Amino acid sequence: MESRLDGHAFLQVGRADWLEGHRGRARGSDVCLSGGTGNIDLRATKRGAGLAMTIGRLLLAVVALGILGLGRSASAEQVGVEQEALTPHYRMVLRVGPAEAMYTAAEAHAHHPASGEIMVGGRMTDGMAGIGHGHAGMTMPDRRHVELHVFSRATGKVVVEAHVTMAIAGSDNKWSSVPIARMYGIEAGPDDMHFGNNMSLPAGDYRARTYVNGERARFAFTLD
Question: What would be the CATH architecture of the domain defined by 80-223?
Answer without folding.
Answer: Sandwich (2.60)
